[in-house]
Amino acid sequence: MPGLYRLLLRCFPTSFRRRFGDDMAALFADRHAAARRRGHTAVALLWIRTIADVVGHGLSERRAVRRTEGTSLAGVWQDVGFAQRSSRWHWRSHLPTTLTLGRGGRFFRTMESMIMRPIARSRRMYLSLATTLLTVSLSAFLSTFAVVEALYLRDLPFPDSGRLFELAELREGQLRTPELDSWERLTSGSSLPATLAGWRETEFEVQGTAQNVELSGLSVTTALPGLLGLELIAGRPLAMADASPGAAPVIVLSRSTAASLFGDHPAAVGSPIRTSAGVFTVVGVVEQIARFPPGHSSSDFLTPLRPAAAGRVSLSPKVLIRLASNGDLHLLQSEVLRRLPNSDLALATAAGRLRLMPLAVPGANSVNGSMALFVHVSAAALLLVALVNISQLILLHLRSRSTEFAIRVALGASFRQMTARVLRDILLIGGISLLLALPISAWLIGRIQLLLELPDTGLRGNAELNILALELALGFVVAFVLLASVVVSRLLRTEARQSALRLAGSLSPIASKRPYLAKIHLFVQLALTIPPLVAALLLAKTYGAVHGRAEAFGGEGLAHVQLRPAPGFQSPADIPVLLERVRALPNVVAAAIYDAGAGTILRPGGRRSPFEGPGTEAGQVVRTRDISTGYFETLGIAVMAGRTLTDTDNSAAVINQAAADRYWPSGDAIGSTILLSREKYQIVGIVSNAHLGQLLMPIEPEFFMPQRHVFAARLVFRTSHHPRTALGGITTAVREVSPSQALSGFDVLSDALDATVQPYKTRTVLLASLAGVAMFLSVAGVLSVSELLFRHRRPEIGVRMALGATRAQVVVWLARSVVVPAIAGLIAGTALYLSVAHVLEATLFGVQTADTAPLLGACALIALATMAAAASQAARVSDVDLAAWIRNGQT
Amino acid sequence: MSKTDALRHNVDRLLPLKPVAFQILLSLADGERHGYAITQDIAGRTHARMRIEPGNLYRSLKALLDDGIIQESERRPAADFDDERRRYYRLTTLGRKVAAAELARLEALVADARTKRWASSRH
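^ inputs. structure came back:
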């Protein structure tokens, strides 16, 4: 230890060292011995005071020598080793530091690396790193906020909003409004399986008021208010006649708009409004037009949509669709092809570019608000961690500029001037980050929307969300600037109060606290990283399980349509006739009929019937399905034993493996007689288990009986290509048997599976993004904390290596100092996760919140990243070349 | 200029003393001491309110030596009590006068302060 003090004495001029060096070393040895008797804390405090004393007074003494001896600044710099003429070192050098002593009393490079390199090099790096950290975390926060709000917390105020869609066409990677050739031909008639309404967004300025008021609203077809469930509270709704060429311009206002313009909404009806688009007469007032069009918080008015004369609709309106209860896109597309065969819309349909963009995300409302809160809190915690990291960077940078501040104070700079210099950097970081975060988050939301086919949301169009998210982001940035300002002013005020000669002494009380704060920072950061990372791993595992089950179902080319009783299809005897026609089609591989009430993977359902069999209790009910021949072949369900049903079977039944295991554990199910709904059946076959209800529900015992009626029958078929391509042929084949037979409820298995998997994919993407940001911030934080912790120990590093420690040993010794706070952080993070894990239970499948594999995986990943970052910093700090120092010896 | 006047001029030139320098002179007023003893004496006398680090101490000692206020002592304690690493310091004649003059200056300052209303109202 006294030897280390001797090293520190290099701060003083050579003459001073020769004169008082021994005495000072002896004095320090006495004080060190006394401190050792009091404990480690006293020793640490002694070292900190000593370093500050030596650095401060050493530099002051050198300055005094310069004044008295007339030595030039260059000479002083040369004496301490800062000279640009040094062949071993240049202030712009990026090489690792070395301990170098040479003739002329060059200062050892440890001090140079602590002071000159940060001043010379780090301002650009530290500004870039701080801005990047804040931009990334702000962008993640804003985009997460907007998407989660739209997905999980904001129900649409429209009736049956799950069946409302916006028609869009995918062109060149973007969703656009499709071109409509003839609105009337498309929408007329009753066989269209949907109700269509068109709208265009309109704006104008109301004139003649005290202040011109800008209103934004919609030009709509007459069906739209009904689709949105808009409540008329005064006057009348828009009529078809209002859209006729030459009709008087009329307008329907929202309640709030009518009140603001006329004071009271009933007074508005019949009143004229002078606008920049002409004079309108108010014919009605509706309650509110909230959250329409998509991405907007509200609209102020409705005017009639006037199509161009004779056919083509110029500037095609956007199309709102409410699908019929048993309607779907494919049937709609069939009607489009039939009604407008050569239209642009038909071309888009045939090319598969049409999309139905839901106004509400299917299944989103089934996820509880706790999930949203979990994501919000995680995102906010990440932003907080980023701000703490940046504050750390600022402190590091300020510390490295302490000599510069001392010189400026010595030259007469005021505290205000020095504060302004530093605050400029802080405001630069905050301002640039906010400016960059807004477009980046808008881009992120757009990408997420396209990837997950979500409705328009968030920053791109929702004014309400825009304001709220911006307010939150601004609040964070302002809090960051204020916090940084307080820290900086305290730091600078402390330095400014002392004289420049005591700068290092005033810095040391602050520095003495920082190693502990740095370790606490590391602990908190790792603790906050664990929950989103574990949640992301769990959700990824869930998504994998769900996707795997969907893939394993093997539903390529499978679809069904609903049949109703009609002439030609009215008795069970008609079923084989119909199936023969359908199976004869070129693309159809297999087909069958089943009872619609039985349900399949495509439409959950199932009939439960009383069951009496061996070993059953009274009142037992089981799931039953009425099927035709070919059912198992069509669905790809293997026959495990016995046979399937034939056309002549009336009292035969087939069971699945689960039923055989449950009720015939001895394996003698075949030939058994059972009662289902008090009717006698004989078991003739056993089939493998299949998820015929919902994909993610457990397998139940099932009993299959012959189809005995045609009410609510469904035709299920498997094709060699996409089922949509066979729909036309199937429609024709069905109508050959029953000319007036209507088809409805066309569902494709692949679409149903996608809809099942979609919510899991959405959640996984969200949490994985958050977890990625959390890991990035963790690594950045560990790097900055390690830099802070290790830099203090550079003199000690030099001594250890001089005494024979290898670089690897030094790296291990340094890295060990972050092990304890890292382990504590992981334990606390695990406890934090387990306390909030119940929030995720409803969203998981095939995995539990307490599963050890994701938890251990997350901890291992973070531990690995932490130690790698700490080791890399330790390796950089410990790059000391002692050869020259030892060779030249102390002077 | 007479010898007395020269001495007075030298004393005036050196005032006011820095607090650390004055404390060192007070420590040496009782006899010769080395550096560690000086710091111990100051800490004891000020009830640990003033802790002087080695760098600060020896810079002050250097300044006092250069001004002729103190000098290194040639005498050494008994061998059993001596530490040959240490150097002992003592006051010079100029040093005694400077210490006395500084004490008088501080006494006058305190007396002047006591005439103020805020000082009397504290009692």
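The radius of gyration of chain B is 17 Å. The first helix of chain B runs from residue 3 to 14.
thumbs up if we can close this ticket
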